[in-house]
Amino acid sequence: MAAPDHLFNLRNNFYLGAYQAAINSSDVSNLSPDDVVERDSLVHRCYIALGQLQFVISEIDQNAPTPLQAVKLLALYFSGASQKESAISSLKEWLADPAIGNNPTLRLIAGTIFLHEQDFNEALKYTNAGGTMELHALNVQIFIKMHRSDFAERQLRMMQQIDEDHTLTQLANAWLDLAVGGSKIQEAHLIFQDLSERYQSTSLLLNGKAVCCMHMGNFDEAETLLVEALNKASFS
C-alpha cells in the first residue's frame, strides 16, 4: 500500500494557482525531512506568486537546503533589474557544481528563469531530462513557446504514462490544445472546466477558460470570466 501523500493538497493548490489556499494547507504533521523541504519550497513559491518577494528573501538564510536557496534565487530574480544579473550568475555557478547541480528544484528554477529570459535552449539544458512532473510540465511550456507542439506532445505523452489524472498532466494537455487550436480549443475548455468543478475555480483556470472563449468568438463570456479572474486574483 502506497504511503499517504501528506502534501497533495498543498501541491495541488499551488498547481491550480490557489496560492493562499496552498499556504493555508501547509501546516501538515508527520512529514519526513525531505517532505519538510518540499513543503517549505512550495510555500515560498506561493509567496513569490503573490508578489511577496522580500518576505521570501528575508526568510531563507544561507544555510537553508539547496531547493530553498533556489527558490530564494527566483525571488531575487523577480525583485528587480538590479538583482537579475547576480541571480542568474549565482544560478549558473550552482548548476555547474556537481554536488547540487542536478537537484530537481534547482533545475526547475533554472528552467523557469531562462524561460522568462526567452533563452529556451538554455532552459532545456536543465529541464529536458525531466525527472519530476513539474519539470515535464515546464518542458511542455517551453516547447509551446518555441512553437514545437510536436515536442510538447511527446512530453505530454510521458506525463500521461506516469499519471494521466495528475493535475499537471491535465493542465499541460489544455495548454497544448490551446497551442494547437482548431477543434482542440473545446477540449481545452472542458479540461479547465473539469478542474474548476473537481477542485476550485481559480484565476489561472478562469483565464484559461477565457482564452478558449476568445478563440471560439465568445467575447462576452470571456470578459465575464476575466472580470471574475481579476476579482479572485486579489484574494489569491
Automatic annotation (TrEMBL):
Keywords annotated in UniProt: Cytoplasm, Cytoplasmic vesicle, ER-Golgi transport, Golgi apparatus, Membrane, Protein transport, Transport
Q: Where in the cell is it found?
A: Cytoplasmic vesicle, COPI-coated vesicle membrane; Golgi apparatus membrane
What residue range is the signal peptide? Answer: none
Give the Gene3D superfamilies listed for this entry. Answer: Tetratricopeptide repeat domain (1.25.40.10)
Which cellular components does GO assign to this protein? COPI vesicle coat; Golgi membrane
Principal localisation:
membrane
Q: Name one GO molecular function term.
A: structural molecule activity
- List the InterPro entries: Coatomer_esu, TPR-like_helical_dom_sf
The record gives the membrane topology as: Peripheral membrane protein
Q: Which GO terms describe its biological process?
A: endoplasmic reticulum to Golgi vesicle-mediated transport; intra-Golgi vesicle-mediated transport; protein transport; retrograde vesicle-mediated transport, Golgi to endoplasmic reticulum
* Keyword Lipid biosynthesis on entry: no
- Would you identify the family this protein belongs to, as annotated? Belongs to the COPE family.
PANTHER family linked: COATOMER SUBUNIT EPSILON
Biological role stated in the UniProt entry: The coatomer is a cytosolic protein complex that binds to dilysine motifs and reversibly associates with Golgi non-clathrin-coated vesicles, which further mediate biosynthetic protein transport from the ER, via the Golgi up to the trans Golgi network. The coatomer complex is required for budding from Golgi membranes, and is essential for the retrograde Golgi-to-ER transport of dilysine-tagged proteins.
The entry describes its oligomerization and partners as: Oligomeric complex that consists of at least the alpha, beta, beta', gamma, delta, epsilon and zeta subunits.
The protein's name:
Coatomer subunit epsilon
**Annotated source species:** Arachis hypogaea
